[in-house]
Automatic annotation (TrEMBL):
PROSITE patterns: AMP_BINDING
Domain AMP-dependent synthetase/ligase: 75-462
InterPro entries: Ac_CoA_lig, ACAS_N, AMP-bd_C, AMP-bd_C_sf, AMP-binding_CS, AMP-dep_synth/lig_dom, ANL_N_sf
Keywords: Acetylation, ATP-binding, Ligase, Nucleotide-binding
EC number: 6.2.1.1
Highest taxon, organism lineage: Bacteria
Lineage, top ranks: Bacteria, Pseudomonadati, Bacteroidota, Flavobacteriia, Flavobacteriales
Similarity section: Belongs to the ATP-dependent AMP-binding enzyme family.
Protein name, as recorded: Acetate--CoA ligase
Pfam families referenced in this protein's UniProt entry, alphabetically: ACAS_N (PF16177), AMP-binding (PF00501), AMP-binding_C (PF13193)
Length: 635
């Protein structure tokens, strides 16, 4: 029996039990199927969650792109690997076959080498959702360079911080990007960032919008002429199993972003395995994930997972609302999409619009629907099930994180049950548990607690770039011996998991993780601000929105508060990006604090949620009197 493709519930339980009894044997068998290894591993796993140190398949040598590309050149040479659907529906879609993709990746790899990039160097990728983005990732992997993709919605300051943290030598960007009706000046943002990025020698610029940009002599180079002159073959660098494949930043509760480091062999095995099972991908299917490759979902389930499986993966450049609310469904019809994977925030936004936008299109190609990024509410789940899946497509509510590299908890379509709002069951090899606040495991069902994982899985992040101590403290110190996810969850009578949301200071807005710390740092830069605290509150479409409580300095001046509100949001947009703007800003004279001076966010959260009558114990506050004032002026 192949563990690679689970087909029945019985098989799931059998495979799951075996995977937990002997994880090493289980993953060894998965690794033995379907991959090209240049040298076999000496051992399957070495691990110690106290250090923490995890190594999968140590001793093995491989290149992930030989598995994404070369391996397919015999049997599916001319099959489409990537369908590029442009922002503008009147522009023709591109179908890039496996052999064409192979050549483009090799050319790009040769260009990078010519620019002085070699194994272990970091390359920052700041590109819109155009084929060059996927090609650059694979080109880096081809020569062993470590890619660090920065979502092209981040500001110059956020980009510079990420480039500097990873000490990138080269940036790949484009002249501009198309997002719905807007054109964004990406190169201008890169120029701004470059004022503060001493490690960058070269910037490669793809042409997309054909807008006029500034090109700095010696530093900036148009990409296309270099590609045109490059060889279409490039030997794959042989990597150690644990050599880093990429860095991807995620928000933390405080301070600077965390560069999660993913390594080669384990990530490859897990991305391939989960793609195949969670989306029940069959030869010839057309698969579409609407995420941006700037996030982990795009890395694992637009690029690596699908290509490792020889799939056809759709890359969509634009937004769900352009030219109208029917665009997603138009694309599904046009490319006959079989698996469709999106975020609850998109579903909620589309569900608010007229059903005509859906019913205009033939969605009969769809077999499986997926969601990711945040909890899905019951209403959105049913809307998706009824109107998009026509009650015939299982919905995989996939729970995972940048840190986990791949999906950990999810239904397996046609095999394990789906339940609205439940991510349901752990995938084979994944051992979740719930902890109470005292750090004791909650045994039995039903239960709720903090979600941890007690055993390593192949695609877990190995460290935070340049800060292993922070990695240990963030993920392995709250519940020693376990990986702590930062999420709360409940487990029902049967053992199905439902993720309830973050229990730390990360707020998920429209599926984007935002740390309160960096936002507060940006607010506090405003000269009129003395102190601030940001919390989340429920929002119909975004899932959560941001509520800022801000103390202004006492200067005796009379300020126009609306101007200050706008200036604060402009600052946030400049430091982080427009996604982090505050929906509500309340000026206050004080913030509730503990005697040790910590802001009691729990209270602010309750007020923002409109639950001022449920504040709980406020007796430990240093300044209980400010609470009433905040309640009286709540927005
Ligand atoms: C893949 C991705 C991770 C956080 C995670 C959790 C939330 C993701 C979810 C979900 C409920 C799901 N999350 N999937 N919550 N149900 N199916 O989104 O990675 O951007 O790092 O976010 O997203 O809170 O901890 P990332």
């Amino acid at each position: 029996m192949s563990k690679y493709h689970i087909k029945t519930l019985e098989e799931y339980f059998q495979v799951y039990r075996q995977s937990v009894r002997d994880p090493e044997l289980f993953w060894e068998e998965v690794a033995e199927e379907h991959f090209i290894w240049r040298k076999r591993w000496d051992k399957v796993l070495d691990w110690d969650f106290d250090k923490p140190a995890v190594e999968w398949f140590p001793g093995a040598r491989l290149n992930i792109t030989e598995n994404c590309l070369d391996r397919h050149l015999t049997i599916r040479r001319n099959q489409t690997a990537i369908i590029f659907e442009p922002n503008d529906p009147s522009e023709q879609a591109q179908h890039i076959s496996y052999v064409e993709l192979y050549r483009k990746v090799c050319q790009m790899a040769n260009v990078l080498t010519e620019m002085g990039i070699s194994k272990g160097d970091r390359v920052c990728v700041y590109l819109p959702m155009i084929p060059e983005l996927a090609i650059t990732l694979l080109a880096c992997a081809r020569i062993g360079a470590i890619h660090s993709v920065v979502f092209a919605g981040f500001s110059a300051a956020a980009l510079a911080a990420r480039i500097n943290d990873a000490e990138c030598k080269l940036v790949v960007t484009s002249d501009g990007s198309f997002r719905g009706g807007k054109t964004i000046d990406l190169k201008g943002i890169v120029d701004e960032a470059m004022k503060d990025c001493p490690t960058v020698d070269h910037v490669l610029v793809a042409q997309r919008t054909h807008t006029k940009v500034n090109m700095q002599d010696g530093r900036d180079h148009w990409l296309q002429p270099l590609l045109d002159n490059a060889y279409k073959d490039c030997a794959a660098e042989q990597m150690d199993a644990e050599d880093p494949l990429f860095i991807l930043y995620t928000s933390g509760s405080t301070g600077k972003p965390k560069g999660m480091v993913h390594t080669t062999a384990g990530y490859m095995v897990y991305a391939a395995y989960t793609f195949k099972n969670v989306f029940q991908y069959r030869e010839g299917d057309i698969y579409w994930c609407t995420a941006d490759i700037g996030w982990i979902t795009g890395h694992s389930y637009i690029v690596y997972g699908p290509l490792l499986n020889g799939a056809t993966t759709v890359m969509y450049e634009g937004v769900p609302t352009y030219p109208d609310w029917g665009r997603f469904w138009h694309v599904v019809e046009k490319h006959k999409v079989n698996q469709f994977y999106t975020a609850p925030t998109a579903i909620r936004a589309l569900a608010k619009e007229n059903l005509d936008y859906v019913n205009r299109y033939d969605l009969s190609s769809l077999k499986i629907l997926g969601t990711v990024g945040e909890p899905i509410n019951e209403e959105a789940w049913h809307w998706y099930d009824e109107n998009i899946g026509k009650k015939k497509c299982p919905i995989v509510d996939t729970w995972w994180q940048t840190e986990t590299g791949g999906i950990l908890i999810s239904p397996i379509p046609f095999t394990t049950p789906t339940i609205p709002t439940f991510a349901t069951l752990p995938l084979p090899g994944i051992q979740p548990l719930l902890m109470d606040e005292q750090g004791k495991e909650v045994i039995g069902n039903p239960a709720d607690g903090r979600l941890c994982i007690k055993f390593p899985w192949p695609s877990m992040a190995r460290t935070i770039w340049g800060d292993h101590k922070r990695y240990r403290e963030t993920y392995f110190s709250t519940f020693p011996g376990n990986y702590f996810t930062g999420d709360g969850a409940l487990r029902d009578e049967v053992g199905f998991y439902r993720i309830t949301g973050r229990v730390d200071d990360v707020i998920i807005v429209s599926g984007h993780n935002l740390g309160t710390g960096p936002i507060e740092d940006a607010i506090n830069e405003h000269p009129a601000v003395a102190e601030s605290a940001v919390v989340g509150f429920p929002h119909d479409i975004k899932g959560n929105a941001l509520y800022g409580y801000i103390i202004l300095k006492e200067t005796g001046e009379d300020r126009n508060q609306d101007n200050v509100r706008k200036e604060i949001n402009d600052l946030i947009a400049a430091r982080i990006g427009p996604i982090a703007k505050l929906e509500k800003i309340q000026f206050t004279r004080g913030l509730p604090k503990t005697r040790s001076g910590k802001i009691m966010r729990r209270i602010l959260r309750k007020i923002a949620h409109g639950q001022s009558d449920q504040l709980g114990d406020t007796s430990t506050l240093l300044n209980p009197e400010v609470v009433q004032e905040i309640i009286d002026h709540a927005i």
